[in-house]
């Protein structure tokens, strides 16, 4: 397959547009704010919906429901319903979710380690914008 016009390919770089499109879709689904927070929270163990909502923080019921459905669809979360009255629903990471938790934790550690540098960069940027 040909590389896109105007782009330079590196040796060994993926050139298949279908693979790039799939990668882009998956990154958009799994790298949003709520997905990372839900996965990180479930990394501490299974949670029922309301406990998960409490632990994640300021997430709406609608957004948590949507995020959990997307995580389940992509194989990162398993939803277990216990047939009691009322039914109890618990969410837990799958093996794939546990694998995804590793880079999530690494990213969180990177942010924590670099938060002062990020804050300084934002301040410098804001000063430049004010002086323009």
Q: Which structural category do the helix and sheet elements fall into?
A: mainly alpha
Q: How many strands, which pairing sense, and closed or not: the largest β-sheet? A: 3 strands, antiparallel
Number of domain modules = 1
Q: Give the CA-based shape.
A: globular
What's the average pLDDT? 88
Main CATH class: Mainly Alpha
Q: Give me the strand/helix succession.
A: HHEHHEEH
Number of helices: 5
CATH topology: Arc Repressor Mutant, subunit A
Helix content range = 55-70%
Q: What distance separates the N and C termini? A: 45 Å
CATH architecture classification:
Orthogonal Bundle
Strand content: 5-15%
Radius of gyration: 20 Å
- Segments where pLDDT lies below 50 for 5+ residues? 1-6
Count of extended strands: 3
Give a structural overview.
- With 132 residues, the protein is mostly helical.
- The chain has one domain (17-131): Arc Repressor Mutant, subunit A (Orthogonal Bundle), CATH 1.10.10.10.
- 62% of the residues lie in helices and 11% in strands.
- The chain contains five helices and three strands.
- It has helices at 17-30, 33-42, 49-56, 61-73, 95-131, and strands at 47-48, 77-82, 88-93.
- The chain has a three-stranded antiparallel β-sheet.
- Strand 2 and strand 3 form a beta hairpin.
- The model is unreliable at 1-6 (pLDDT under 50).
SSE layout:
Elements: H1 17-30, H2 33-42, E1 47-48, H3 49-56, H4 61-73, E2 77-82, E3 88-93, H5 95-131
Antiparallel strand pairs: 1-3, 2-3
């Amino acid at each position: 397959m040909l590389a896109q016009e105007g782009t330079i390919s590196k040796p060994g770089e993926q050139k298949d547009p279908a693979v790039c499109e799939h990668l882009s879709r998956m990154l958009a689904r799994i790298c949003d704010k709520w997905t990372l927070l839900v996965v990180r929270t479930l990394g501490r163990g299974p949670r029922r919906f309301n406990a998960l909502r409490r632990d994640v923080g300021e997430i709406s019921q609608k957004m948590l429901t949507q995020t959990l459905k997307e995580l389940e669809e992509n194989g990162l979360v398993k939803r277990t319903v216990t047939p009691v009255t009322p039914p109890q629903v618990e969410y837990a990471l799958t093996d794939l979710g546990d694998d995804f938790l590793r880079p999530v934790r690494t990213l969180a550690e990177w942010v924590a380690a670099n938060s002062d540098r990020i804050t300084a960069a934002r301040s410098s940027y804001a000063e430049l914008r004010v002086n323009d």
